[in-house]
């Protein structure tokens, strides 16, 4: 899943472009950052659309002050619930199906065993260890951005939260700094430059949050005015390209979405010249600042570019917007943060345990025995075991996904939603 698709070796359908994006964590993170930038700025953008007045200026400053005040606790308080859950899981030994630092796990070939909290002698010692790890994470890493030489172990999937906090503050600062600018200057000049320069120079997180800010500006304008070409032009009434060439504009929107899905499918390991036709060419086009990013090659650049094209096209595609406004999508949106916080621990405990148990039940483990002879099992048995491996993997995936959504709902009600109420309550106590 981390390797590029190749018609000779890694030719599974889940590695194909566009299909890969369904399980590509990097692209999902990029989309999440764009959505965050959009959500954090849309209220302020609508305030900026109003007439210049003392009331609107006061409302903007009040909203920004409130957002800055609550942002840190809004992010780290739900993380405390995730740390607590991981600590309980570790104390119960639920991660030991695949112990950490087991480097030659052939059954997990091509995968990655993430760090997790080490199992302590007692529940009390486990709680003390997790509390100390949470303090380092919430204070040293998130608040002061000091992650050099330290890697928290309780839930390594939370690596995006420090970025989320830092880039959120950048969004609020940019809103304040650009509040006196004319709309055309923000939409046509400053924000596009922030996106392009940030993405090119390796600050992909900053670029994606700024893109969310830019899309919020465009969306707020489209809500009131279908004149796409007159964004921010004083009294502009020019006929839009959509009115003059609706078929051409529709083609461009669908093309942008398709290209975005393809770019978002860029593999984690950069393909070699003889691999993955198309992606290997993209590798040669990658800006130098992205080539050696955290040993992941150019994935962040192309995942960011693909996510940007996907999000930008959706702004102009009411059909997809209607789908995303359905009850199921809205529910998943509400629990999305909780889903992010719990999916890793559940995968490493329930997911791995069920997978090993079901594979052992049907004998799939024979496929990963390094000492088996070429004729044991036979070719026919190998094919049969491969089929069973696929069936049992999808079976475990269905169970793990169902349980993850259920636990996310509980986590949302127990930790996420109350943390929002608590931060608002705490803010009011100081006003």
UniProtKB/TrEMBL annotation:
InterPro entries with a match to the protein in the record: Acyl_transf_3_dom, Acyltransferase_3
Membrane-crossing segments per the record: 12-40, 72-95, 190-216, 299-320, 340-362, 394-415
Domain annotation Acyltransferase: ranges: 25-412
Keywords: Membrane, Transmembrane, Transmembrane helix
One Pfam family named in its UniProt record: Acyl_transf_3
Any GO molecular function: acyltransferase activity, transferring groups other than amino-acyl groups
Name of the protein described by the UniProt record: Acyltransferase 3 domain-containing protein
Organism: Orbilia oligospora (Nematode-trapping fungus)
